[in-house]
User: What shape does this take?
Amino acid sequence: MTAIRIPVFPQCLVAAAAWAIAASLPAAAAITSPLTGNYTVSTSESIGALTIGNNTPATPATLTLASGGTLTVTGANPAFLVGTPGNPYAAVNQTGGTLTLTSTSVILGYNSASSTYTGQSTYNLASGSIGLTSYTIVGYHAPADFIQTGGSIVTTRDDTALNVALFNAGNYAISGGSFEATGTPYIGSPSLQVSTHDAAGTLTVGGGASTAAVALKGWMAMANNADNDTDKGSATVNLLPNGTLAVNTNIYRGRPDYVVSNGTGTVTFNLGGGTLRPYNANLAVGNANNGHGANAVFDLNLLSATTSTLTGIGWKDSVARTLSIYSKLTGGGGLAIGGGTAELRHAANDFTGNTTISAGTLKLITTGTNNVANSPTILVASGATLDVTGVTGPGGFVLASGQTLTGAGAVTGALTATGTPGNLATVSPGSSIGTLSTGSVTLGDYSDLILEVGGAGQNDKLAVTGNLILTSTLDRLDLSPVGGWLGSYTLATWTGSISGEFSQVYYNNVLMPNPTAAGGINGNYRLIYDAGSKMLLLIPEPSPLALAGLMAGGQLLRRRRGG
Assistant: This one.
């Protein structure tokens, strides 16, 4: 067999060949400014300043930051500009990678006040991250959109970190990912502004299949007309399902640091299934005593067919804090309390959805008797609390006509139930079988206490710390059977005294004419108001007719045995 000889090349020849091949290839393009046409960053690149789009001639431009790409902008402000005067279109599409701005900001819709701008600047963040020490402006002197469906943005800026619609229309919509401002702004500079001067700004958080959060260590301003009270900007905030808005200190209409009453702009704040909460300190919303008095007030609109969450639990540290709502809650949606303490301080909330206290405490504060009177059902879940000690009107907290208080949690403070004909005020302990704990209770005209009873010792119960007052001639007790009855039941307890008896007692929706008589309820039970043991009892005791039947049966048996 003939051997095959493989030639061995000297190392120097190999290196020379590699150099020759590399030299024959075109050099990799580097990003330049102003950027025109389409350019993709997929490796690591750096530039001092970057303007996307060209003025003369007007040229559209798109920058794509792809997975694995890193773009660092090192110039001083303003050094990262999307859109220029006269440029019809400029966009950034980030599908991954990292954008780092060492000392500059992101400005969308960059333009001078005197320039004509007919295009739209857009930043699409689908994945990846943006890190900066400065601010982001969406809508400078030209309209702009920032659309975030994923990824993360973190800024350490101490003053305004995000400005949506500074001098022109701006829209920031985040349906996935997060925007976090970790700096601590001073009183004159919020972490987030929506609409400044005459601009129209929209902030939308949530609405997608994944979670989205805008989290601010500082405060938030809307329709902030700066130092000119003739400006009339408009701000719209939409907080939708899977969306969280976490803010510290205050959410204002206008700004609190100017003497002028600059709150002439309009604010639309829609709660449509998202979560409003603090970042890592207490939060007040719509406080008329801050900002510019009555001009600072704005409503929170609960969108129909949605349930929005208020929680005092800090987004950053999960610590239980206080969320105080001074704004009026209106609209057809429902409200859920998710932990910590949520205070409703407006006297005339008129939202018509249900109120669910899933965890933590809902505290009602008003000089009236009920500032959630249009909410048909208030559910206090096990372990949660409805605090009505801040309701200072006559009788304390008074359930409204057609309103139901239910659940297995606790009510702190005095409770009165007073309805109208055809619209009872209802207390219904337990979400199935359970105990509702309360302060003193007065069941007044057209009130109804509904209790489920069934099985061995299984029943709803009202546990009153204080007095139980039943002096009305129009109050009723509804016993709803669940399965068979077996043994005795404690329906209510009190620590003080009891006054009066129920004027009407129903069993399975049928009126019982003599509920305290032997067998007066369903022929087998009777109701006992035991003032000594401070319990309302339901005990088995046959009716006189049943007893007569038993006695007659016994006599017949004796006769047969005797015969």
